[in-house]
UniProtKB/TrEMBL annotation:
[Ni-4Fe-4S] cluster binds at residues 262, 297, 335, 448, 478, 528. Its EC number is 1.2.7.4. It comes from Thermincola ferriacetica. One of its GO terms (biological process) is response to hydrogen peroxide. InterPro entries: CO_DH_a-bundle, CODH, HCP/CODH, Prismane-like_a/b-sand, Prismane-like_sf. Pfam families: Prismane (PF03063). [4Fe-4S] cluster 2 binds at residues 47, 50, 55, 69. [4Fe-4S] cluster 1 binds at residues 38, 46. One of its GO terms (molecular function) is peroxidase activity. This is Carbon monoxide dehydrogenase. Keywords: 4Fe-4S, Iron, Iron-sulfur, Metal-binding, Nickel, Oxidoreductase.
Length: 636
């Protein structure tokens, strides 16, 4: 653990000394003052599940080997792990439920701010869910899709799997997971089931608990998949768009509104109304009107669909406020640091919470509802303009760093680009190039950023190394944010870092798609909830090849993982058969049994497994080795 690292993001490096001069704390200062962090917690061997505890197991074998109730290290670690998975699944699926309920409101005419922007996608979703669309208008289909989706949150018959899980993976995978008893039938019931079985005095069998964790992770997958697809229906499916990223996207002469969190329901409407309020901003003295920027995954959502510039990703969210140029930080759900409420006391920035379940001391709360979204969005922009008038020009410090980023590669956008090479069979060019070795394999980068490593460093190091070995790179979430900020979503990066055969393929596709050059080195697939876009591509490839997902030369990496959502995502990736790298030691190593299951035994069960490697170059080597092994097994 290096607490005095240098940042690869020069904007952070430049701003930090000025923050220190002002005597303010950042996430990195608090990380330092938290040292040494609790070793029991790091190993996962502490338990606070009941009030006889907290209990902790002595990892050296000298002290207690069982909690007061008799739970051993394996039970405690497994329980802690799957509770994290349940929390991740709850976060993603509640987001998904919110989108599905909004679709229902749109269909019933109760949400005037919204419409169905992608009818084609709506129809393809309906077909996937087995719904007939014949003779029905768009609203009727939307209502049926919303109701069928909500059944995945309410079905009581546990022998019927969630539609959004069953219909989105290979048939072979669905059968395997059903036979294992880990296919979810009802997202909420699975989350509740984990909380139930981990209550004091319930499931104590670590392997049984871990199987419950796989089911919880697939509930997470289900919630994520439906969230992404229905968001596309309402807001449009992303297509490639050129934008910019890093703190230099903030403008000194504009009212800067940062949208932060994960759920696009309000941020999309803020983007809609901002244009009509530009004049009000100018009258307040902002010569350049209103400038909306993104932070974290709400940032990824509006960047992918609208080309809204990204200010920064998760770990450096405080830096946006510390530029002194953000007039309003508008937050919805997840990954919002409570410290923003403290920092805004030293700056003019107005922190605005918008969701009833996500309030922060110090913030102004503008309660968002789908019915009043237009009024809510206007209120948010008004608050930003009022805050702009309070700005202290002497405190403005915008690091002048920003990079071009070509973003918005949904699965549909990838297929559309490939169709320029082969209209009848768009997947064929990709498959041919994988089979002939021009593309060695595919790596999906996902997950957060964390204080445990120099922010963004692992992402960039592993990506460059894999690209050199002709591995096609996809990214979501704060990993995507890192690549966007640091110039890896550009054609220049492809020229600089891609191996020769990968470069040739990216150039052929990019030229055919009218980009006048190659595709960017890393394809931006959206926010962290959008990881399922990569599964769409992988499942299409697997089906075309006639193999299951666990045979594909496809890997995933969460090199700076942090949140419970990342734990859930990594676990479903593994459950789908995808070897998944973690660049952070997971809080499970206090149990040799749990560690062995996750890193080894799962391979026999589901094909996927976790690869834990904190050194990014060695991690890239291990991921490439897995790709080579899978190619060999396929005979290619
Ligand atoms: S509850 Fe666990 S992580 Fe927290 S201080 Fe106690 S032993 Fe450490
Ligand atoms: S459930 Fe058992 S191990 Fe956990 S705190 Fe209670 S007594 Fe301790």
């Amino acid at each position: 653990m290096n607490k005095d690292y240098k940042f690869v993001d020069q904007a952070i490096e430049e701003l930090l000394p000025k923050v220190k001069e002002a005597g303010l704390d950042t996430v990195w200062d608090r990380f330092k003052s938290m040292q040494p962090q609790c070793g029991f917690g790091e190993l996962g061997i502490c338990c606070r599940i009941c009030w006889k505890g907290p209990c902790r197991i002595d990892p050296f074998g000298n002290g207690s080997q069982r909690g007061i109730c008799g739970a051993d290290a394996h039970t405690i670690v497994a329980r802690n792990l799957i509770r994290g998975i349940a929390a991740g699944a709850a976060a993603h699926s509640d987001h998904g439920r919110h989108i599905a309920l909004t679709l229902l409101e749109v269909a019933e005419g109760h949400a005037p701010a919204y419409c169905i922007k992608d009818e084609k996608k709506l129809m393809s979703v309906a077909a996937r869910l087995g719904l007939s669309t014949e003779g029905k208008n768009v609203r009727q289909v939307a209502k049926e899709v919303a109701l069928a989706t909500l059944e995945d949150f309410s079905r009581q018959n546990s022998s019927i799997p969630c539609s959004w899980a069953r219909q989105t993976m290979t048939a072979e995978r669905a059968e395997k997971l059903t036979a294992l008893g880990v296919m979810p039938h009802n997202i909420d019931a699975v989350v509740a089931g984990i909380m139930n079985r981990t209550h004091v005095g319930c499931d104590a069998d670590p392997v049984n608990l871990l199987l419950g964790g796989l089911k919880g992770a697939l509930a997470d997958y289900t919630g994520m998949y439906l969230s992404t697809e229905l968001s596309d229906v309402i807001f449009g499916t992303p297509e490639p768009v050129i934008t910019t990223a890093n703190l230099g996207v903030l403008k000194e002469d504009a009212v800067n509104i940062a949208v932060h969190g994960h759920n696009p329901l309000l941020s999309e409407i803020i983007c809609d109304v901002a244009g009509s309020m530009d004049e009000e901003a100018r009258q307040a003295g902002a010569k350049e009107g209103i400038n909306i920027v993104g932070v974290c995954c709400t940032g990824n959502e509006v960047m992918a669909r609208r080309g809204i510039p990204l200010a920064t990703n998760y770990l450096s969210q405080e830096m946006a406020v510390l530029t002194g140029a953000v007039d309003a930080m508008v937050v919805d759900v997840q990954c919002i640091m409570p410290s923003l409420g403290v920092l805004q006391e030293c700056y003019h920035t107005q922190l605005i919470t918008t969701m009833a379940t996500n309030k922060i001391p110090g913030a102004v709360h503008v309660e968002f509802t789908e019915k009043t979204a237009l009024e809510d969005a206007r209120r948010v922009v008004e608050l930003a303009i009022e805050a702009y008038k309070r700005r202290d020009k002497n405190k403005i410090n915008i690091p002048q760093y920003k990079e071009t980023a070509i973003v918005g590669f949904s699965a549909e956008a990838v297929f559309a680009a490939l169709s320029k090479l082969n209209k009848e069979d768009p997947l064929k060019p990709l498959l041919d190039n994988i089979v002939n070795g021009n593309i060695q394999g595919v790596a999906l980068f996902a997950g957060c950023s964390t204080t445990r490593v120099a922010q963004d460093h692992n992402f960039v190091t592993i990506a460059r190394e894999l690209a050199r070995h002709n591995v096609l790179l996809l990214a979501t979430g704060c990993g995507a944010g890192a690549f966007a900020k640091l110039g890896l979503m550009t054609q220049e990066a492809t020229e600089a870092y891609a191996g020769d055969s990968l470069k040739a393929v990216l150039t052929a596709v990019g030229e055919a798609a009218g980009l006048n050059g190659p595709l960017p080195l890393v394809l931006h697939m959206g926010s962290c909830v959008d990881n399922t876009r990569a599964v769409t591509v992988a499942t299409a490839l697997a089906n075309k090849l006639g193999v299951d997902l666990d045979k594909l030369p496809v890997v995933a990496s969460a090199p700076e993982a942090m949140s419970e959502k990342a734990v859930a995502i990594g676990t479903w990736a593994v459950t789908l058969g995808i070897p998944t790298h973690l660049g952070i030691i997971p809080q499970v190593t206090g149990s040799s049994l749990v560690t062995e299951v996750l890193t080894d035994k799962l391979k026999d069960l589901v094909g996927g497994y976790f690869i834990v490697e904190t050194d990014p170059l060695r991690a890239a080597g291990k991921l490439y080795e897995v790709i080579r092994e899978r190619r060999k097994a396929l005979g290619i």
